[in-house]
Specification:
Pfam families: SNF (PF00209). It contains 20 helices and no strands. The chain is mainly alpha-helical and 525 residues long.
């Protein structure tokens, strides 16, 4: 068989993006999610303001982009979802246990998909609420009382209709898109929603810039605190933001890259995706803090005195309060929550595609079968756990463990196993350079194999120590043990179980292309 062409296998033809633009839009749609809008502005503000952009860019260049390229190289060279790609990368000897790392990533994505959907359902509800300002004069009480009906920590089967109905709608739409396939479903949804998201959010930002107090809000965000650069926690915050924002290290970009054609540029589109994601984060920071400046102006206080500048508090308490006070508030609210819904939806598709693709390949399912079965099970669990009166607490806890323990562990294991144990760094660098216009040097292997694992290990250890010693959000230890550490236990057990199951088709019936012939002392002579 000629090594100049892709090998033929018994598996059906692999789905593909229609072209480079489709891939780029889908990858940006995955990266641009809820965290860009509700996490980055607050993290930047709390970690040095304008000075935070320095460690942020350093983190992007030294960890974000290198690990993004690593995911691209694995997925594109070994043509599969995370379990398939890792199985092939490890070969017949090491592939079995390395496949377990792939299923670990799939299990992380599965868990995230369960609760991520709920936040989109909240945003969809608030999009509707914006038109009559239904949250009234006390958005905090409305969110936790009238809307979510939050109860004490525990496990309830008391469903909240206001969450249940939009959640079911989101799941039906998501399953339909996944069932349509990569090109006709996921790509088409991103082609529609990503431009709409950018336009809607740009309109929101322009409106925010003309509000009274907007300049003070922007000054609060961008005024640099140079002393903050001497704080290691600020640098960790920058690496953390980049890491979680780019959708890396839990199977998404491995899966997405596997749908690219054999001869497809990887690194240049990767740079476009990375910088587009960061650009949207900065745009979100401008829009959010211009609006917060108006809110502070209305109350006659400084921006620093405001509360609820990140996460659920920012989106569903602070912003509704702002919308109630500003001229044209209903339209502004609809733009904000519409943007939040679209950003979340495009990211959700990528998360669930990781799970769907893995099941398609392991068990020989069609695209539609996998979407319906995986989506159906996910939807049922999502509804049972997160549309109840205890859903908010379960969501917050599961998110904390899945992100800060699950994804970071996955990234560290991936880097160490591939670069140090299997010594595949040079082969993956060869693959990137064989198909791409922007070539990566040996420094890329250093960044992926040494710098990133060190920084991520520090993040992981410090977070685990904090969770063990201090707990989380004043929740009882028994609850954190079941929902928090139970999430990690589920991910590990799922990885072991699915690795042990038999493949429908032999994943090793495959030849990587282009052929890699490492340079050794013998080949030099």
């Amino acid at each position: 068989m000629s090594t100049g062409s892709a090998p033929q296998t018994a598996a059906p033809p692999r789905e593909q993006w229609t072209g480079q633009v489709g891939f780029i839009l889908a990858a940006i749609g995955s990266a641009v999610g809820l965290g860009n809008i509700w996490r980055f502005p607050g993290v930047a503000y709390e970690n040095g303001g304008g000075a935070f952009l320095i460690p942020y860019l350093v983190a992007l260049i030294t960890a974000g982009i290198p690990i993004l390229f690593l995911d691209y190289a694995i997925g594109h060279r070994f043509r599969g979802s995370a379990p398939t790609a890792f199985r092939r990368l490890g070969g017949r000897i090491s592939g079995r246990w390395l496949e377990g790392l792939g299923w670990f990533q799939v299990a992380v994505a599965f868990v995230i998909g369960l609760y991520y959907t709920v936040v989109i359902a909240w945003a969809l509800s608030y999009f509707v609420f914006s038109f009559d300002l239904r949250w009234g004069d006390d958005p905090a009480a409305f969110l936790t009382g009238d809307y979510l009906q939050v109860s004490d920590p525990g496990f309830s089967f008391e469903f909240v209709p206001g969450v249940l109905i939009p959640l079911v709608i989101v799941w039906l739409v998501t399953i339909a898109v996944l069932a349509a396939g990569v090109a006709k479903g996921v790509q088409r949804a991103n082609v529609i929603f990503l431009p709409l998201l950018v336009v809607a959010f740009a309109v929101l930002v322009v409106r925010a810039l003309f509000l009274d107090g907007a300049a003070e809000g922007l000054n609060a965000l961008f005024t640099p605190d140079w002393e903050a650069l001497g704080d290691p926690n600020v640098w960790i915050a920058a690496y953390s933001q980049i890491f979680f924002s780019l959708s890396i290290a839990f199977g998404i970009m491995i899966t997405y890259a596997s749908y690219r054609k054999r001869k497809a540029n990887l690194t240049a589109p990767g740079l476009v995706v990375a910088f587009a994601n960061s650009s949207f984060e900065i745009l979100a920071g401008i829009g959010v803090f211009a609006t917060l400046g108006f809110f502070a102006f209305q109350q006659g206080i400084e921006v620093s005195e405001l509360e609820g500048l990140t996460g659920v508090g920012l989106s569903f308490i602070t912003f509704p309060a702002i919308v109630s006070q500003m001229p044209g508030g209903p339209i502004f609210g609809a733009l904000f929550f519409g943007s939040l819904t679209m950003a979340g939806f495009t990211s959700l598709l990528s998360v669930l595609q990781v799970v769907s693709a893995a099941f398609q390949e392991k068990f020989g399912l069609t695209t539609r079968q996998a979407a319906i079965r995986v989506g159906g099970v996910s939807a049922i669990l999502s509804v049972l756990i997160f549309s109840t009166t205890t859903g908010l607490l379960a969501l917050d806890t599961a998110d904390q463990w899945a992100n800060n323990v699950g994804i970071v562990s996955s990234a560290i294991l991936t880097a160490i196993l591939i670069v140090w144990v299997l010594r595949k760094g040079d082969e993956l660098r060869f693959h990137l350079n064989s198909v791409s216009t922007f070539r990566v040097g040996k420094v890329w292997v250093f960044l992926v194999g040494i710098l990133a694992p060190i920084v991520l290990a520090y993040m992981l250890i410090s977070r685990i120590v904090t969770l063990i010693v201090e707990g989380y959000a004043d929740l009882p230890a028994w609850y954190l043990g079941i929902v928090g550490w139970g999430t990690i236990a589920f991910i590990i057990v799922a990885a072991v179980v699915f690795t042990a199951l038999r493949w429908k088709r032999d994943p090793n019936d495959f030849t990587a292309w282009p052929e890699y012939a490492p340079v050794t002392k013998e080949t030099r002579s």
